[in-house]
Write a structure and sequence with these properties.
heterodimer; A: alpha/beta; 4-stranded parallel beta sheet; 4 strands; 39% helix; disordered C terminus; B: alpha/beta; Rossmann fold; FAD/NAD(P)-binding domain; Fumarate Reductase Iron-sulfur Protein, Chain B, domain 2; 5-stranded parallel beta sheet; 50 strands; 29% helix
């Protein structure tokens, strides 16, 4: 039986809210697919577009960026910067063949373990449907 | 650092079965051993234990490791633990990386094989990253030896005392006028049944007296900046209007205060006055005045204390009412008659029935006060002389204010009598000359000199005659006329001239058929005067529509009642001559098109719509302009195209220093009250000018608009209509100039004044000032902003209670004897509304009471959590009901939570007293046959029951305070899903936040009872003391760093930094940016934005993160 396509997803989680939220998902023993590997940054505003591009280049099929809810950023405004960068980055990505849905920005607070698990579940399934990302030609069209 | 010299030690922790039962740690270890630069890889049961840590230290020694990776739990848990291990072993602690294979792997992954693969990937990422890590040194900063405690309930009080007793200074900020919080509102506390106030108030007194505590009551924190050890806190001290040191608490002021509002302390079951002390044992023990903004005072252009004199009239204090009005304007009777009363348009009573008849009440006070009552004024202390040109409302008000301030004032008036338009514009039937002159005489009696029949030809000359300042207020007494053929025929007049002549008692020859052109007050005045001068028919011609007329509606209606005809959308084109006089008028119909600046349609003539009207007199009332001859020779004063003088609207200065202008000739024209406001504004400007003070500072208008003020209509306000103003019958009016409006009687006035809703609470009637013996009341107090240097912050802001109306099945508010638990506390308290008697709303003693647990708790429809203390609270209340009334008490519960010391014993005691415990959630409370019926399920019997009772107490749960989102934002802390402030760790750090230096105490973090609150508060205080005692604190060096060689000085980063930590530096030729490491918090926003890669954050560099990305994705 052919093995199901297992997406590789890289998650950039901010130290204060979303990383704690993911920790809470753990302490609550919630279950989500193991396809996501989490990298800790101090703030979602730290996520450089080149991290996202590097991830896709190195074989990621999806990238998740999580930060604090607007108004609750530990650094006051960092997440607003992420909120501005990511839509612009998405536009750029679509122009170079990275389809809509592969890059996702979510707000997860430190008490939202369940929400984090739900987001990872949904994203994994979505990327699974999109199929593997082929960095030499882009998506399923390549 | 090269490949050959880097030696990484990798340690896979089993964490007992937490990781070990899911992840194959041996396999992960073996995989790690194959990774580049890994010198040793091990796995062990508990890496964080002592043997685990020793293992690392031993390997560092033996293998010469210079990097360490531990794969275990979250770095938020144990990163500091392992960093300390490295430090002990002589390695920089930042050469360490953790892979989270527990919270992010073993605990969340079902399949063991997949979990193991994921753990391998995470370790690979960590190993790749740690290679690029660099040695960093923590900064040490000093800690300011002072603490801030926010909230003065039992938690804040306890914490403040702990910190202060240890010898450190505490600022305790409390937003209410007294400390004490919720505990002060309780009657008895469980399980000891101690009187709450008895155990609380000694601590409150200690706080008030403590040399190390600065109590900032009636204050709020509005801003926090800085970082642990070095916070800068901005505190707003709200004006109390009572001076703290002087108030003796004698309570004389409340006896004379006319305003009552529901008391917050008594949960609205009792009223308090506008000046009040929150409760008898308040600390500070002084009174406070609850003063908000009233829509009427804000709207009045002269900001008269409207609410004040209305409150005084309601008390029958007519003389005091007039005194209050005359503190601000000299023309009370006049305004009471002719003011356009914009205040009434914003009066919030409109939301119940009709606005208060404010102008009529002002007239009543002015007409009925003691006629010989003197006007208060100061001595003639100032030597400078001021000239006022024009004795209209603007000039008179300016002279009045300046004179009472101590200046010598001379008013020049060109006409033979004073008053301006009040004398020669407004007809007698609206404003009798006798009334006007009485008020002008009062001003003259003060000592103001008014020189009649003296026209000033040159305003500039006045300055040379020894006047140090001049206020020009000559009004606009030249009618605009109309440029149409026939305008100079006999029988064509301008309304201004017509009204002036008739007001001066001189007859004007008018015919039988009079036409008045225009739609303003002058037009209506002219029309009604024409009626009285004997015209047979008077018609008004207006080029727009009725709703566009600027005349007062009441005046228009009165004119129509007197037989004046109004014609709309028509305007004269030319006058026709008959016997060398006006014999007719050709009019053209108008249509309205696009809206103009005033929001009204622009009129255009309709083609071929001319028609002739037979008239013999025309009065043009289409506008007026000032006579500016007095400034023709004064260079530097400019005028507009419309012919009015240009002034600075804030100060009324003209282009010449010392010459000011206002009213119809310049700014503030149009109505009497606006002219008065202009005169007052000029008086302030002139006073400042003569003292050499800045004219503009502190004079900004309050941006608050009347319509933005929300007013709670007090429950039980009954609708009551506004009394109609008694008037002369129409038949008695038209042939004479008798005053038409007759004024209110005393009964009407007092009844009308009592309809006032006291929107601002305190009405500024100033009676409290009169009654206060120590003279500690100051109504002009302003809020103060303090800036404090703080080392550590403790939040103890408390909680709110769930409010029952959100659960309509309990019918709270629909029946009087369904109350919430805090309301019962006040009912039970000796200082409460019933003096401690537990009674029904009708005063009778209840014979049966039901207490329903978990209202707003353990409920998916409101709050899911258990509020922890309500079971004990409810049982205590059951005991009190039993004790005070002997009633049958039912407790409807789901589970009994009685886990504290002595709690279970208390539960048994209450049961032995005969309180019936029914296991079943109280589902519904209805009214049946005049009684309350509680419906519930008796789960023991397994069937529904109904309980008829006299009273129901709803045990409502604790919830986060309404303002908790705003408070969290100010202090940069987060909240949990229920809105309570978020602790750093629920088990081990329940009083830390994620922000260094900020701690939590009490119910602001989670529901808890008093003993747990006190313990929590002391624990948080211990953390604060730990910081302050150390005197210094280590700050992680995760700050931004600039490589000046790469920086091009583009400055993108500067604008992005949330802390303004980046500035432009470098040299003249080579601008680069610089980071202030004290301000930088290391968020990295600048790094992500830098196009040149010139800035980086330490320990989170691009290279490190990119390596980690490669690591996790490598196959």
């Amino acid at each position: 039986m052919p093995k199901q396509f297992e997406p590789r997803i890289v998650g950039f989680l901010c130290n204060w809210c979303s990383y704690s939220g993911a920790d809470q998902a753990g302490t609550s023993r919630l279950k989500y697919p193991p396809n996501i590997d989490i990298i800790r940054v101090m703030c979602s505003g730290r996520v450089d577009p080149q991290f996202v591009l590097k991830a896709f280049q190195q074989g990621a099929d999806g990238v998740l960026i999580c930060g604090c809810h607007p108004g609750e950023c530990h650094y006051a405004e960092g997440n607003y910067k992420a909120a501005r960068r990511v839509p612009l980055l998405k536009k750029m990505l679509s122009q170079i063949g990275i389809e809509e849905g592969r890059l996702q920005l979510e707000w997860v607070s430190a008490s939202e373990g369940e929400r984090f698990a739900t987001i990872v579940n949904e994203m994994t399934e979505r990327i699974r449907k999109l199929g593997p990302f082929n960095s030499n030609g882009g998506g399923n069209n390549g | 650092m090269s490949e050959s010299t880097t030696k990484v030690g990798v340690y896979i922790c089993q964490c007992g079965i937490n990781i070990g039962a899911v992840v194959d740690c041996e396999a992960v270890k073996n995989h790690a051993a194959t990774l580049p630069n890994v010198a040793v890889a091990r796995q062990y049961q508990f890496m964080c234990s002592e043997p685990g840590q020793e293992m690392i230290k031993k390997d560092i020694r033996e293998f010469g490791l210079n990097r360490v990776v531990v794969a275990s739990c979250s770095p938020r848990m144990h990163e500091p633990t392992f960093q300390a291990v490295l430090k002990d072993a002589g390695i920089n602690p930042y050469f360490f990386e953790m892979a989270n294979i527990r919270e992010h792997c073993s605990w969340v992954t079902r399949d063991h094989v997949e979990a193991t693969e994921k753990a391998k990937r995470l370790v690979q990422g960590a190993v790749a990253r740690v290679f690029w890590q660099e040695p960093l040194e923590s900064r040490e900063v000093p800690v300011t030896p002072s603490a801030l405690v926010v909230g003065g309930g039992i938690a804040g009080i306890q914490a403040a005392l702990n910190i202060a007793d240890a010898g450190y200074h505490v600022y305790l900020v409390e937003s209410d006028a007294s400390i004490g919080g919720r505990m002060a509102q309780l009657d008895k506390t469980f399980p000891t049944l101690d009187c709450s106030a008895c155990i609380l108030t000694p601590k409150m007194v200690l706080v008030g007296r403590h040399p190390n505590i600065t109590l900032l009551s009636y204050s709020e924190v509005i801003g926090v900046s800085g970082y642990v050890g070095n916070f800068k806190v901005k505190v707003k001290k709200k004006p109390r209007y009572v001076e703290l040191g002087k108030c003796t608490g004698c309570d004389e002021c409340t006896k004379v205060c006319p305003v009552e509002v529901p008391s917050e302390f008594d949960m609205g079951l009792k009223n308090r006055k506008a000046i009040y002390r929150p409760f008898a044992q308040a600390i500070p023990s002084a009174f406070v005045i609850d003063k908000k903004k009233s829509p009427c005072k804000i709207t009045c252009p002269a900001h008269i204390h409207v609410q004040g004199y209305i409150a005084l009239i309601a008390q029958g204090k007519i003389n005091e009412a007039l005194d209050l009005i005359r503190e601000q304007i000299p023309l009370a009777s006049v305004c009471g008659r002719v003011c356009t009363h914009p205040c009434e348009d914003e009066c919030k009573r409109r939301e119940v029935d009709e606005p208060i008849a404010i102008a009529a009440l002002k007239r009543f006070a002015a007409d009925n006060a003691d006629p010989d009552r003197p006007i208060k004024m100061g001595a003639l202390t100032k030597k400078q002389k001021v000239a006022v040109v024009g004795s209209g409302p603007a000039g008179l008000s300016c002279a009045y204010d300046l004179f009472r301030n101590g200046y010598r004032v001379t008013v020049y008036e060109a006409m033979p009598m004073a008053g301006g338009m009040l004398a020669v514009g407004i007809p007698e039937y609206r404003l009798p000359k006798g009334i006007l002159n009485r008020e002008i005489d009062a001003v003259k009696k003060l000592g103001v000199e008014i020189r009649l029949n003296t026209k000033i030809e040159d305003a500039g000359a006045l300055l040379k005659e020894g006047y140090r300042a001049v206020f020009m207020a000559v009004g606009a007494h030249k009618g605009n006329g109309m440029e149409i053929p026939g305008k100079d025929l006999k029988g064509a007049y301008d309304a201004i001239d017509f009204l002036r002549e008739t007001n001066l008692g001189r007859r004007v020859a008018i015919g039988k058929k009079v036409a008045v052109i225009g739609g303003g007050n002058s037009a209506i005045d002219a029309a009604r005067v024409a009626v009285r001068e004997g015209a047979e028919s008077v018609q008004v011609f207006y080029r727009r529509q009725r709703q566009d007329m600027t005349a007062m509606t009441a005046e228009i209606e009165a004119a129509e009642a007197e037989g004046v005809n109004l014609n709309f959308l028509t305007t004269p084109a030319r006058l026709l001559e008959k016997n060398r006089k006006v014999g007719g008028m050709e009019c053209v119909r108008m249509e309205l098109k696009e809206l103009d600046a005033s929001g009204r349609g622009t009129p255009y003539p309709v083609k071929d719509s001319e028609y002739i009207t037979e008239i013999d007199t025309v009065i043009f009332a289409i506008g007026q302009t000032p006579d500016l001859s007095l400034i023709t020779n004064v260079k530097g004063i400019t005028t507009t195209r419309q012919g009015i003088v240009v002034v600075d609207p804030a100060t009324l200065e003209t282009g010449i220093a010392g010459i000011f202008a206002g009213g119809d000739m310049s700014w503030g024209g149009g109505t009497v009250i606006e002219a008065i406001a202009a005169g007052k504004r000029a008086a302030v400007s002139i006073d400042r000018f003569l003292q050499g003070i800045d004219l503009k500072e502190g004079r900004e208008e309050d941006p608050l608009r009347a319509r933005d003020i929300q007013v709670t209509i007090p429950a039980g306000t009954k609708e009551a209509p506004r009394p109609p103003m008694p008037e002369l019958k129409v038949a008695d009016r038209c042939s004479n100039y008798r005053e038409i409006r007759l004024g209110f009687t005393r009964e009407m006035a007092i009844a009308e004044a009592e309809r006032c809703l006291s929107c601002a609470v305190c009405s500024e009637c100033r009676q409290c000032e009169v009654a206060c013996q120590p003279k500690c009341i100051n109504h002009d107090m302003k809020e103060e902003i303090l800036e404090l240097d703080i080392g550590s912050i403790l939040l103890a802001t408390g909680h709110d209670f769930f409010h029952a109306p959100s659960l309509p099945q309990y019918n709270y508010g629909r029946f009087p004897n369904i109350i919430e638990s805090m309301e019962f506390e006040r009912l039970c308290s000796g200082s409460g509304p019933t003096g401690g008697k537990v009674t029904l709303a009708n005063g009778k003693t209840p014979e049966s009471v039901a207490i329903i647990h978990c209202v707003g708790s353990r409920d998916s429809h409101s709050n899911s959590y258990c509020s922890r203390l309500c079971c004990m609270h409810a049982m205590k209340q059951a005991h009190l009901v039993k004790e005070r009334t002997g009633a049958q008490v039912y407790e409807l519960y789901i589970d009994i939570r009685a886990s504290g010391k002595g709690y279970e014993e208390f539960y048994e005691k209450v049961q032995r007293e005969g309180v019936l415990f029914i296991r079943g959630r109280g589902a519904e409370v209805v009214g049946q046959g005049g009684q309350l019926v509680v419906k519930a399920e008796e789960t023991g019997l397994g069937r529904p029951i109904t309980l008829p009772v006299d009273m129901v107490i709803l045990s409502t749960g604790m919830i986060a305070r309404k303002n908790s989102a705003g408070v969290a934002s100010i202090f940069h802390i987060t909240r949990d899903q229920h809105g309570f402030f978020m602790e750093a760790h629920p088990k081990l750090k329940p009083f830390h936040t994620n922000t260094d230096g900020i701690f939590l105490a009490g119910t602001c973090q989670a529901p808890r009872d008093i003993p747990d609150t006190v313990a929590h508060a002391s624990a948080a205080a211990a953390e604060v003391l730990s910081l302050l005692a150390r005197g210094k604190v280590a700050i992680e060096p995760l700050t931004a760093q600039v490589n000046p060689e790469r920086c091009s000085g583009c400055r993108v980063c500067i604008a992005l930094c949330p802390y303004q930590a980046i500035s432009l530096g470098g040299t003249e030729n080579q601008k680069t940016v610089e980071v202030n490491e004290v301000l930088c918090k290391g968020c990295g926003v600048c790094v992500a934005a830098c196009p040149a890669g010139a800035i980086t954050t330490r320990h989170f560099t691009d290279r490190q993160i990119l390596a980690q990305i490669e690591g996790v994705l490598a196959r």
